[in-house]
Amino acid sequence: MKEVTAIIRPSKVEQTKKALEKIGFPFYTGRSVNGRGKMPAEIKLPNNGIMKTSFMSYRKFIIVIDDENLDIVVKTIIDVNSTNNIGDGKIFVSDVLRSYVISSGDIMD
Fold first, then answer.
1. Would the pTM count as exceeding 0.90?
2. 109 pLDDT more than 70
3. Which of 2, 8, 35, 96 is the most buried (most CB within 10 A)?
4. In sequence order, which residues have a C-beta less than 8 Å from that of residue 73 and are 6 or more positions away?
């Protein structure tokens, strides 16, 4: 199994949820996070100006999937969230060695 952690812009949350559901992955954990990358992000202002900032609000999606579904999930997240701008986010993939169902104690390998 793999754990996919995607850090995305808040404005892309609904599109990301819909896209994941469309490909059969309506389950995830999400939370609000703040952070920064190597480069300052750019924020478009209402007056069409641009402000650079080093600390941004993002949303963190965590989804655990079978190995064979990794490519489609990652591709979907990239397709929805890429604007080709600094600050679009990151995706991290980790191995999940074991998971448990809390209510029963069963191991879900």
1. no
2. no
3. 8
4. 4, 20, 23, 25, 63, 65
